[in-house]
Amino acid sequence: MADTLKASKQGLEIVDRARRRRGWTKTRTPAWWDSAYTTQATLKRFWRGIAIQRENFIAICQAVGLPNWKAIAEGVEDENRDFSVEELRPVVHSTEAPTQFNRLDWGEAPDLPFFYGRDLELQKLDRWIVGDRCKLVTLLGMGGAGKTSLAVTVVERLGEQFECVWWRSLLGAPPLDFLLEQLIQFVSQGTETLASSNLQQAITRAIALLNRHRCLIVLDEAEAILGGGGGQSYCPGYEGYGDFFKRVGSDRHQSCVLLTSREKPGEVVAYEGQMLPVRSLQLGGLKRQEALHVLETKGLSVSENELSLLTDFYSGNPLALKTIATTIQELFGGNTAAFLHQNTLVLGDRLRGLLAQQFDRLSHRETEVLYWLALDPEPLPVEQLHSYLLFSPPRSHLLETLAALERRSLIDKISNEGEIRFTLQPLVMKYVSENFTQQSLAEIKAVLDNRDIESFRVLKTHAPITRTGAEKKTHPSVQVLPRLVKALPRGLGCDEAQVAKKLETLLPLLHGRSPQVIGYIESNLKAILNNLNSEARSR
After folding, report:
1. Distance from C-alpha of 7 to C-alpha of 407, rounded to nearest angstrom
2. Which of 393, 493, 381, 508 is nearest to 445 (CA)?
């Protein structure tokens, strides 16, 4: 085994984790550590040299934990065969004796008929939960990203490593004392109950049970108990969850709590780290081959080009892909090309509802930043975004807002020649643009009725940015100004000419007002009038 560990980089990684866990110093680490750990040639000599003893080679592969040892055994005799890192990555198991699997309570967990992809995510979670014995792990992602499905798959794959598995949804926002009482009764098999109304004592008792028994606790849809302000505060009466999460991540115990959430709790922000027992995994979109499996389960056949476009337009979001597959079949008879020809994004009621829930929880500053990211179709650097804001906050406040939106899984970062820019996924941009249009229309109607420009809010602080040619995005365009112009006749109950006359009566209301009071109102009204006139001339 010593020789195996010397030669295998993966074996050395296992020892490295054990060294850190047991508090070894460098002097207590074997002398061959530093040189062997980074010597790739040693690894190759090991795989090639052992091939002459095939039985021994297979036995070592199995002992180290390589899941695809058969394929390695068949290819090792080929001198030109190179193995990928993933092929040589062992399945890491705990160094302690496995516990006996006793009980499983699925609670409100869904039954999954299919699950495709997420192989890298599953490997990472296996390494964190079983190998590194993390105490608190959070799965993050926007609505429909597949967080719950991934959590179910994790339980199915890793559940036998634990004495008991307990799943609860926080969607109904259960009080913490009620949740802890259920947990204590389940883990103790009814021998213990919540004997005190003191919440800290209840948390202490629960942690003691999690230390006595190796448990996997899944708390699904944790965003339901989080308040506004970037997910770092809790709904009134639910602040105790913050104490529970903090102690789960810091107290001594042998269990793991797995959270799924659209927003990152503040305790995760404060205590997470790649070398610490608190970690978070951000779920992006599915890869194209994974997206193809999702479409096929809905009975939709697509070409390579159509698959590429759908995956890009919908950011690989599993729920969005399922929704659009149904739409294509129902409205276009399964003709994906005919749907793509419409050059539009379809959200669907469920995804729109999930986005509405998140949008309603945003602070004023977070909403303001999202609107600007939707109004300018190009990814924005911090400096440009800061210059757009009518009442520019300190740069530090803007950075805090961007960090909060990222924790809410609502914005994307793009690195462009060393510069970080921020943008929205197409689905989020579609929703935010629609919301901006509805809000703007409501404000115009209110000012026409009461003749008070104080009713202008988003049209005072925001202005659509128009870009043309190569600056346009490649996904179906979300142009806010044309959308608003088209909505005005229907919203005001008159034709374009009458809309223009009504809007012209608002311009005198701005005379004599300070630039701080007017903001972007005048430029927005003139842009709308110019667009209406252009529409009339085109006819």
Report:
1. 41
2. 493
pLDDT beyond 60 at 147? yes
Tell me whether residue 122 is exposed, middle or buried, using C-beta atoms within 10 angstroms of its C-beta: 0 to 12, 13 to 18, 19 or more.
middle
Residue burial 150-161, b: 16+ Cβ < 10 Å; e: rest: bbbbbbeebeeb
The answer to whether the beta carbons of residues 262 and 411 sit under 8 Å apart is no
CA 92: distance to chain centroid?
26
- C-alpha torsion 357→363→366→367, nearest 10: 60
Q: Report the greatest alpha carbon distance in the chain.
A: 92
Q: Which amino acid is at 129?
A: I
pLDDT at 399 over 80: yes
CA dist., res. 202 & res. 184, Å (int): 9
Supply the Cα-derived Rg of the chain in whole angstroms: 28
pTM of the model: 0.72
Decide the pairing of beta strands 419-423 and 412-416: antiparallel
3-state SS class at 139: strand
Q: Give the percent of the chain with pLDDT over 90.
A: 42
Q: Count other Cβ atoms within 10 Å, centred on residue 302.
A: 21
453: DSSP letter: G
Q: Give yes or no for a contact between 192 and 129, defined as CB atoms under 8 angstroms apart.
A: no
How do residues 439-466 score in pLDDT, each as one tens digit? 999 999 999 999 999 999 999 999 876 5
Separation between Cα atoms, residue 504 and residue 515, nearest integer Å: 19
Distance, in Å, from the CA atom of 346 to the CA atom of 336, rounded to the nearest integer, reads 13
Query: Which three-class secondary structure string do you get for 188-246?
Result: CCCCCCCCCCCHHHHHHHHHHHHHHCCEEEEEECHHHHECCCCCCCECCCCCHHHHHHH
Helix (H) or strand (E) holding 85: none
Phi, psi of 248 (to 5 degrees): -60, -40
Q: What is the DSSP letter of 310?
A: H
Q: What are 504-538's pLDDT values in tens digits? A: 999 999 998 988 889 999 989 998 998 887 665 55
Token look-up 């070409």 returns 303
Contact predicate 20/45, CB 8 Å: no
Which residue in the block uniquely carries the two structure tokens 């065969």?
81
**CA dist 10 to 44, 75, 80, 85, 86, Å?**
13, 19, 21, 9, 10
| Length reported for the chain | 539
State the Cα–Cα distance between residues 283 and 484, nearest whole angstrom.
33
> Which residues pair with residue 280 across a beta bridge?
138
Residue with tokens 């308040």: 227
Antiparallel, parallel or unpaired: β 136-140 and 256-261: parallel
